[in-house]
Amino acid sequence: MKFDDKGLAERCADAEREAILADPGFGLHFTDHMAHARWTPDKGWHDDAIVPHAPLTLSPASAVLHYAQEVFEGLKAYRRADGSVWLFRPEKNGERFQRSAQRLGLPELDVDDFIASIEALIRADAAWVPTPHDGGEESLYIRPFMFASEPFLGVRAAHEVDYYVIGSPAGAYFASGVAPVSIWITKTYSRAGAGGTGAAKCGGNYASSLIAQQEAAENGCSQVLFADAGSKQHAEELGGMNVFFLDADDRLVTPPLSDSILHGVTRSSVLQVAADLGMETVERPIVLDEVLQEIRDGRIREAFACGTAAVITPIGVFKSDAGEFHVGDDAGERTLQLRNHLLDIQYGRAEDTHGWTRQV
Ligand code: COI
């Protein structure tokens, strides 16, 4: 698919766009266009185009509104010092989008078409890719998504599916920027169970995390950490990002991948960057009671959240019914080193030894 731009006008005036790019926040503003394609069993994917970013017209009977047959992705376009715009491992998002679609009974999109749709949107809306402020992480956040648009109330995989890609200029995900965030450990709610949709990037996982996220906010925390749904003993992941700990022996530890954990592109990049920087990395089950005791004893030196939106965000404190467990008031040294190195690769300031970046 080519996702041709049909020569559409800009929706937003230059001055308005520049004001937005000066302080974009996260997820608040949207570019002028979007990519779109439709799928039906007889035609497969068709009608691909770049169209104006505009409200959708949906039947109130569209299956997605009733049975949540939907998947999405999140990746970013980075503007480099020379003005060029680059993507970071978009094929990894494309492969995960296929796995998510497969799990939700949606049609798979070729990875090449996934990347073509994103690049076509970025070319149409190039003026919306922010130039990062000094030391900043501004980028164009790209949100591809696919949903069951067929008006049908029977419960089966839909026969009409729509795919869109929208763009949103973004700064830091957390209002506090790179300052350490506080994490609430919920024992009340689970995010995903074995054999469920935890590894798929589908809206339902996020919807079911919201009540726990509210519980976190009521306890003064900005994110929630879920334990596994079975034993409730092991750390799995945060509401919208993966979690890492740094132990006293300079080992970077994170829960192993499973069908109840999102296979984060940033997570896998962090593991590789840490190894490149000479750190030992360990993917193993993390018993919550043990890790909290280790934090209390000073044997866990640093902790951070990571994801496309969050990049690498230091964690300052974990809170639970058992009390507060302080990791540190400032971002840890290793956390900052990993964060800066990852951002340097993404913005072309460090050598991309793994071939992760791709110019649009
Ligand atoms: C991302 O990091 O891209 C996500 O989809 C997570 C969400 C919290 C914005």
TrEMBL record:
<keyword id="KW-0100">Branched-chain amino acid biosynthesis</keyword>
<protein>
    <recommendedName>
        <fullName>Branched-chain-amino-acid aminotransferase</fullName>
        <ecNumber>2.6.1.42</ecNumber>
    </recommendedName>
</protein>
<feature type="modified residue" description="N6-(pyridoxal phosphate)lysine">
    <location>
        <position position="201"/>
    </location>
</feature>
<dbReference type="InterPro" id="IPR005786">
    <property type="entry name" value="B_amino_transII"/>
</dbReference>
<dbReference type="InterPro" id="IPR001544">
    <property type="entry name" value="Aminotrans_IV"/>
</dbReference>
<dbReference type="InterPro" id="IPR036038">
    <property type="entry name" value="Aminotransferase-like"/>
</dbReference>
<dbReference type="InterPro" id="IPR043131">
    <property type="entry name" value="BCAT-like_N"/>
</dbReference>
<dbReference type="GO" id="GO:0009099">
    <property type="term" value="P:L-valine biosynthetic process"/>
</dbReference>
<dbReference type="GO" id="GO:0052655">
    <property type="term" value="F:L-valine-2-oxoglutarate transaminase activity"/>
</dbReference>
<dbReference type="InterPro" id="IPR033939">
    <property type="entry name" value="BCAT_family"/>
</dbReference>
<keyword id="KW-0663">Pyridoxal phosphate</keyword>
<keyword id="KW-0028">Amino-acid biosynthesis</keyword>
<dbReference type="GO" id="GO:0009097">
    <property type="term" value="P:isoleucine biosynthetic process"/>
</dbReference>
<dbReference type="GO" id="GO:0052656">
    <property type="term" value="F:L-isoleucine-2-oxoglutarate transaminase activity"/>
</dbReference>
<dbReference type="InterPro" id="IPR043132">
    <property type="entry name" value="BCAT-like_C"/>
</dbReference>
<keyword id="KW-0032">Aminotransferase</keyword>
<dbReference type="GO" id="GO:0052654">
    <property type="term" value="F:L-leucine-2-oxoglutarate transaminase activity"/>
</dbReference>
<comment type="pathway">
    <text>Amino-acid biosynthesis; L-valine biosynthesis; L-valine from pyruvate: step 4/4.</text>
</comment>
<dbReference type="GO" id="GO:0009098">
    <property type="term" value="P:L-leucine biosynthetic process"/>
</dbReference>
<comment type="pathway">
    <text>Amino-acid biosynthesis; L-isoleucine biosynthesis; L-isoleucine from 2-oxobutanoate: step 4/4.</text>
</comment>
<dbReference type="InterPro" id="IPR018300">
    <property type="entry name" value="Aminotrans_IV_CS"/>
</dbReference>
<comment type="similarity">
    <text>Belongs to the class-IV pyridoxal-phosphate-dependent aminotransferase family.</text>
</comment>
<dbReference type="Pfam" id="PF01063">
    <property type="entry name" value="Aminotran_4"/>
</dbReference>
<keyword id="KW-0808">Transferase</keyword>
